[in-house]
């Protein structure tokens, strides 16, 4: 990983496909992690639980405008990464559309019916995201509001 605060990072998503225990479901997909981030022993443990699919070369792109969301993700108990997949009834597997660390962006895709998977953000990506946030984040300055004198306006 580069030492400068680059605004993009390439990673591979590791998805696990398991048989569904629900009578109406055929299969259950979950995001197990990212490479880099998962060790070979982690990958072999995931393979023991079901069928593993890897989508290589997904780009995580950061924008200075979204630093507030990145900051809140990093300050949460467990920072997350989100994989947005397009819904395609003809496909046998999810189609990765976007990899993001912005919860607000992931939530907007959830509202439109896209499938969104999440997993813990790997330590290396936490450090990369932290460098980006420290370089670009400008917290909004609090403004003191003046109280309106509504009782004086009625007397006029």
Structure characterization notes:
The protein is α+β, with helices and mostly antiparallel strands and 156 residues long. It has one domain (8-138). The chain is built from five helices and six strands, in the order ββαβαββαβαα. Strands 2-1-3 form a three-stranded antiparallel beta sheet, with no helix packed on it. α2 crosses α4. The termini are far apart. The mean pLDDT is 87.
From the spread of the alpha carbons, the general shape counts as globular
Tell me roughly what share of residues is in helical segments.
25-40%
Number of contiguous helices: 5
Query: What does the main sheet amount to?
Result: 3 strands, antiparallel
Write the layout of secondary structure elements.
Elements: E1 8-19, E2 27-35, H1 40-47, E3 51-61, H2 67-74, E4 80-86, E5 95-100, H3 103-111, E6 115-120, H4 123-136, H5 150-155
Antiparallel strand pairs: 1-2, 1-3, 4-5, 4-6
